[in-house]
């Protein structure tokens, strides 16, 4: 089976969709972790300034 034949199979379509889904989930997870990190950092700075003031 050549690659051009493989491109017309259901397995190829499933692999393409799974790859796109993995990329989308990774982007979402990265953005979520970034927001959580910024929130924790903000809370730490606020707490430190409150305690040290």
The average pLDDT value, as a whole number, equals 95
* Beta-strand content: under 5%
Helix-strand pattern, N to C? HH
Q: Which stretches are poorly predicted, pLDDT < 50 over at least 5 residues?
A: none
Distance between the termini: 72 Å
| Structure class | mainly alpha
Question: How many helical stretches?
Answer: 2
Let me know the number of strands: 0
Could you estimate the helical fraction of the residues in percent? over 70%
- The gross shape turns out to be rod-shaped
Largest sheet, strands/sense/barrel: none
Q: Rg from C-alpha positions?
A: 22 Å
Q: What is this structure, in a nutshell?
A:
This protein is mostly helical. It is 89% helix and 0% strand. It contains 2 helices and no strands.
Describe this structure in words.
The protein has 53 residues and is mostly helical. The chain has two helices and no strands. It is rod-shaped, with a radius of gyration of 22 Å. The model has no long low-confidence stretch (mean pLDDT 95).
